[in-house]
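Notebook p. 47: complex prediction with fructose -6-phosphate.
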Amino acid sequence: MDFIDELKNLKEQIKFNQKFNITSEYDNIVISGMGGSGIVGDIFQEKFSKKPVITVGDYGIPEFVNERTVFIGISYSGNTEETLNNVDEAMKKNAHVYAITSGGKLADRVKNSIIIPSGLQPRSALGYMLMPLFNTFDPVDDDIIKKTYDILDSMDKNHDEMRREALKIYENSYIPIIFGSRPFKSVAYRWKTQFNENSKTFAFYNYFPELNHNDTMPLKKAYRRDEYRYYVFNSDNLRIQRRIEITQEITGESFNIITAPTNEYFEKLFYLIHYADYLTYELALVREVDPTDVSTIEELKSKLS
Ligand code: F6R
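Predicted complex, structure tokens below:
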């Protein structure tokens, strides 16, 4: 599948209806994954608050994991070392272990695995990996899925705005800086990683209100201030809106505000995700780099194995 077809596949992925059948009582949820698979747990954690959720993007699991923990390993390839290590540790502690993967060692090790379609870049399979979490713990109405599908479909048909933005980044050699806010801090991080992997460029992120306690200083006084382009997610929180306004006012910086067509959580989530998909894809094209290429990451993994 071409990378553009992978991007267009996202709208189908949100219809993926598999879920875990969790029958035992549990106290907490721990989700382990790296990179394009790890972001899935972070997005879910930021939204879901009915039970404690901890995400792990590293070797090692929290000490509290026990037989009353639901532990979910997410790895698109099913062969990510850190995630496999953590699944093994969770099994040793008798947690209820589940997995989301397209196969690999993870599928072999975890009986309760949801197997998702293979052949995509992990970062292009976000919908397949995220939906089982929502379907299991916090189902999304069909009506909202339909509306989100329509938003993604219209972005697939027309992403001129993102193409223009990509050109602007390229022509000015801008370094993108993304500022999110709850419940989309993880999406700001996803933007960063999409710039890294698709466009092969550095990008940085932070979120309101935290950035008002640190990044606000370089916003006004950074070395080479004209090298950055700021993308800021609009928020329906009045205090965050005020912070966005005042931050621009007192630093003299002008943010590029990204506004979704709706404030409904799920629709906005996928709008913001897909915006970055296209922006970073278009930046790869204009830079003449291959958006699918993750050869350096692969080389590193193979040297470690
Ligand atoms: C994203 C990507 C990487 C991987 C990461 C973990 O497209 O290629 O960020 O997601 O290296 O690998 P998996 O997802 O297979 O566990």
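Notes: Residues 72 and 98 are 5 Å apart (CA to CA). The two ends are 28 Å apart (CA to CA).
Next step: compare against the earlier run before touching the bench.
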